[in-house]
Every structure is written in C-alpha cells, then in structure tokens.
Specification:
single chain; about 0% strand; 25 helices; about 75% helix
C-alpha cells in the first residue's frame, strides 16, 4: 500500500512531466505539421489529465486535513506531525498551518466577545483607565500563556514551526486584539466632545495610552515566545495609527476642555461663596470682592499636572527625537497659554478691585467746598479708604501667587520639558521664546496693577495728610511750654499706614519688581510731601516739628533699600533748617548745602517772617 506521503509526492513529480507534453519539441516541428489533428487531441487529453490530477491533489489534501483534525482532537501529536509533514508538500503546508491556527479555541467568537467584558467590567459604568490597565494585563498574560502552550504543540507537530507561530501571532493581533481595541477606543467627536461628567476627552486619551502601553507589553511577551519573521512592532503600530494621526489635536482639545471646566468650577465656587455672605452693601463690596476668586497656586499646579500627563503620552507614542520635540513643544505651549490667561485674568480681577476702590474715593471723599474736618469723619470716606487698603493687599497677594505660579512653570520647564527639546535646537529656542513672551504678557498686567497700587497708597496718604495735618502743627505758639519731640499726628498716621500696607508689598515682591515699585513709591511720596508742606506757614518751632516729621519719613523709606530715594529724603531732612535758622543765617545755610538751593528757594517763602524780615530782597542774590 502506498503511503500518504508517497501519494502526495506523485502529483508533484508528475506535474512537470505533463507540462512537457504541453510544449513542442523544436526538433520535431516537421512531424508536428503533418500530425496537427493528432497533437490537438493529445493536448486536450493532457488538459483533462492535469485537471484530474489537481482534483486528486485537492481531495488528497482535504483527506489529510481531516485526518489532521481527528488526530488534533485526540491530541495525537505523532499523527498530527505525520499529516503536517505530508501536507508540507502542498505549498509548504500553508493550508494546514492556517487551518490549525483558525481552529484554536482562543479565536472563538464567544471568547473574543468576552474580552471586552473582562477589561471594561460593568458596561453601564464609566471605565477607569487604571482598572482597564489591570484588565488588559490580565487578559494579555492569559493570551501569552495560551500562545506559549500552543508553541509547544506547534514545535512538536509542524516541520516549519516559525511559520506557524508567525501566523498565530498575526491572528492574535489582527483579530483578537483589534476587536478588543475597537470596543475599547471609540474616538470621540471634537465638535461635540463628551462632557466632563462622561470623562471628557481626557478619558479617551488615558484609555488610548493604557491600551497602547499594554499592547506593546503583549508584543514584547509574544516575541519572547516566538513569532517567526513577523514584524510585531510594525503590526501593532498599524493598529494604533488612526489614533496616533490625530493624537495631538485631541490632546490640545482635552487640555482646553480641562481648563474651561476648571474655570467654570472656580466661578461657581466664587458665586456660592458670595451668596453665603449674604447681601453685601455697596460700600463694602469692593473690599470683599477683592478676596474672591483669587489666583491660586494649587490651580496652576493642576495645570502643570495635566501637562505632565499629556507629555508622558507624547513620549509614549513616539520614539523619534524630532517628533517628540515638536509634540512636546505644542503641548507645553498649551500650559503657557493656560497659565498666562489665568494669571492675567486673576490680576485683572484684582485691578478691578483697585479701580472700584478708586471710584469709591471719588464718590465719597467730599470736595474742597466742604471743610476737611467734615470729610475726615465721613464714614463713606473711611469705607473707601478701607476698600483701597483691602484691594491693595489683595493685589499684592495676586502678584505673589503669580510669581509663585511662574516659578512653578519655569521649574517644570527646566526639569522636564527642556530635556525633551534640547536635542532639537530650533524647537528648544522657539519654546524658550514662547515662554518669555507669555511671562512678559503676565508681567505687563502686574505692572499696570502695581501702578494702581501706588496711586491707591498715595491717595490715602494725601487723605490722611489733608485731614490730620493742622495749620498749627508748624506754627506752635511760644507759650513757654517745652517743645514736643513727637512727630505730628498726620505723620504718625501716614507712617503707620505705609508700614501696614507695605508689609504686603515686601512679602509679595522680589528682585527688580520690588526695587522698581518701592523706588517709584518713594519718589511719589517725596513729591507728595513737598506739595503738602507748601500749603503751610512755618515759624522756627514749626521747623523743628517738620524736622521730626522728615526724620520719621526718612526712617520709613530706608526700608525700601532704594538709594535714590534715600538721597532725596536725606536732603529733605536738611530742608527744615530754612525755617529754624535766623534770617541772617539763611544765606550761609544755602551756600553750605547747595543741593537744597532749588527747594530752599520755594520753602523759604513759607517762613512766617518772610515778608516782615524782607527776605525776598535779602536773598535775591542767592537765586
């Protein structure tokens, strides 16, 4: 009896033989001309024989496959191996390889449908990416174990086991993994994205990342088992290509959605906080409004945390340096936009409070037609002053938190982002420019607010001076009572006010911003005091009183650490001497201290004896 192996070799050996009869022998062309009819009949006979032979081959192959299946069901590995060896004569055994793989239980429809349930859990609840990752790891470990067991059988049965493993792993990825990913990764609409209650776009991106990572883990495990010449990595990348092509667009849209949701949340919290306070009188509104919806460093930390998560996905989805750098730059730019917008809006709200306080001063401080003493006790004016101080402090808090927020972003850039951008010089430079531009924009808002703070402080200083400074402060009567070595009430109140509000500035500001702010404030204070004193008349004891006041002011501004301001107030301390010295000594005083000449020319006219002592003519040669 002829064996199956011999039977399979007969058609293979006869096929070339029949092919020879289909061709004409060049040496017998003459005979072919004389027997055309006979050759035609022979050709038709050969065609029929070839067809019969092919049918025989197919029938033989099917019988072998049937025998292989029967042996497979019995786990009769020797018989399976015999059939596989014979079938390898038919197209290297491709049919039996595919047949074997296709009948594996791991590809049953029920099994593949159950995969999604294993990974996603309750279909009515929102999937949790962490739980999905655990489910994928469990499922993929199970698949790997199954493939590993199949590899033992395949090695024992098939003459070309690597080819079978290649087909098996390809089927795992293209059928089982692909069907699972289709259920797991449903790409949402950007035009009508899922709400935050539904997980938002972030849920899709997190699911995509965990699926991508776990699938690559599966790839690594399958390669360790064996997959022949199959390009597993390339095949997996093709599975995720539709998602990776639009990834950056979805990432940017997700970050915008998260930001919008956060701002809405803060707005609701602010509204509820306002309502919990009850109805707030208009006079108190500005001072309270300044504390609401304040810039929060924790919110900026949330922005950075979202960005870190997005950057981790950016580096996960690509291994090419240039691609990573471009994507990271785009994602980091989203953070810059978020922080810049958040800080600017927060500073603008704080500036609005300063503006409201200024408006209150305009409404409630009585005009010059009403006596200043009346204005001093006006409760509305006091409320406006309180609102101004509150808004000043709130703005300084906003500036401090803005600075802290910027520092967080800069630290994040240095520690995380720069390392990913540095390999591509142009991208790194562009990102640095974008960061500088964003920070400069936020700083511009801060500078405008700081100028308003100076206006607010000076407005209160001027109010205190106008209401507290008495005409008799600098023209005390010579009643024999010893001189008062204390500063005037107006000076004391101004110094106390400045010390109180500037404590917030000293805490909030630093570096060049602090220096610029205090220098400007010191210059404005100097100018304001000079203008204020020009409204009074001084005798010699009033000059002594003024000297005590200037000493207090100079002591205060020394804490500014502003050399130009210190110099002005040092000269200011000399100026009261023009009221103290005798008329005949004025010329010597001015000549000895030429730096006060310009101011002395104006101030000497404030002496109460300026006219009686005929100082204008006596000092004309000095000016």
């Amino acid at each position: 009896m002829i064996s199956f192996f011999n039977c399979s070799s007969i058609p293979r050996k006869l096929a070339p033989f029949f092919g020879l009869f289909a061709e004409q022998d060049p040496g017998t062309q003459g005979m072919a001309v004389s027997s055309v009819v006979g050759n035609t009949s022979a050709s038709r006979g050969l065609d029929v024989a070839v067809a019969n032979l092919q049918d025989y081959c197919n029938e033989l192959e099917n019988k072998l496959l049937t025998r292989f299946d029967a042996a497979s069901q019995k786990r009769d590995l020797p018989s399976m191996a015999e059939c596989a060896k014979i079938l390898s004569q038919f197209n290297r055994g491709t049919s039996v390889m595919q047949h074997y793989v296709g009948l594996r239980p791991m590809f049953d429809l029920e099994v593949m449908n159950a995969d999604a349930n294993v990974v996603l859990g309750d279909p009515d609840s929102q999937p949790n990416p962490i739980n999905v990752g655990v489910g994928l790891s469990s499922l993929f470990n199970e698949i790997t174990d199954t493939v590993r067991k199949e590899a033992v059988t395949i090695t024992a049965v098939f003459p070309f086991p690597n080819d079978v493993m290649s087909i098996l792993v390809q089927r795992v990825l293209e059928d089982r993994v692909t069907k699972l990913l289709e259920k797991l990764l449903m790409k949402p609409s950007l035009a009508n994205p899922p709400t935050m209650e539904q997980g938002g776009l972030a849920l899709y991106l997190r699911m995509l990342a965990v699926a991508y990572e776990k699938t690559h883990d599966l790839s690594r495990d399958l390669r360790s088992v064996g997959c022949g010449d199959l390009d597993v990595e390339g095949l997996i990348e093709s599975l995720f290509l539709p998602h990776k092509d639009t990834y950056l667009e979805y990432e940017q849209a997700s970050l915008k959605q998260l930001y919008k949701a956060k701002m809405e949340e803060l707005g609701i919290e602010s509204q509820l906080s306002s309502e919990s306070r009850g109805t707030i009188g208009r006079s108190k509104g500005a001072s309270i409004a300044s504390t609401q919806h304040q810039i929060s460093v924790s919110v900026v930390t949330d922005f950075v945390r979202w960005n870190e998560e997005a950057i981790s996905r950016s580096t996960l989805f690509s291994s090419q340096t240039a691609t990573i750098a471009a994507t990271v730059r785009a994602v980091f730019t989203c953070l810059l936009d978020q922080v810049c917008q958040y800080i600017k809006e927060g500073l603008e709200r704080a500036r609005d409070s300063l503006g409201e306080a200024a408006a209150m001063r305009e409404r409630f401080v009585l005009g010059t037609s009403v006596g200043r003493r009346v204005a001093a006790v006006t409760s509305s004016a006091e409320a406006a002053a309180a609102a101004g101080e509150s808004s000043f402090k709130s703005f300084m808090v906003a500036v401090q938190r803005s600075g802290s927020s910027v520092a967080i972003v800069q630290q994040y850039f240095t520690n995380s982002i720069s390392q990913l951008l540095l390999p591509v010089d142009a991208v790194y430079a562009a990102s640095c420019e974008e960061m500088a531009s964003a920070m400069s924009s936020a700083e511009g808002s801060a500078c405008k607010g700081l100028q308003q703070c100076i206006d607010t402080v000076m407005a209160e200083v001027e109010r205190l001076l106008s209401t507290e400074q008495k005409a008799t402060d600098y023209r005390s009567s010579d009643d024999g009572i010893g001189p008062d070595h204390r500063a005037t009430i107006a000076c004391t109140r101004v110094v106390a006010y400045l010390s109180r509000v500037l404590e917030a500035a000293f805490t909030a500001l630093e570096g060049l911003n602090k220096q610029a702010f205090l220098t400007e404030l010191g210059n404005r204070l100097h100018k304001g005091l000079m203008s204020h004193w020009e409204k009074f008349s001084f005798n010699w004891s009033g000059g002594l009183q003024l000297k005590r006041d200037t000493t207090e002011y100079a002591e205060l501004v020394r804490s500014f650490n502003a050399p130009t301001v210190d110099e002005k107030f040092e000269l200011l301390g000399i100026l009261p001497n023009v009221f103290i010295v005798a008329p005949e000594s004025l010329a010597s005083l001015v000549e000895a201290t030429p730096s006060i000449r310009k101011d002395a020319q104006r101030f000497v006219q404030l002496r109460d004896d300026y006219k009686s002592a005929k100082l204008a003519s006596k000092l004309s040669s000095l000016w």
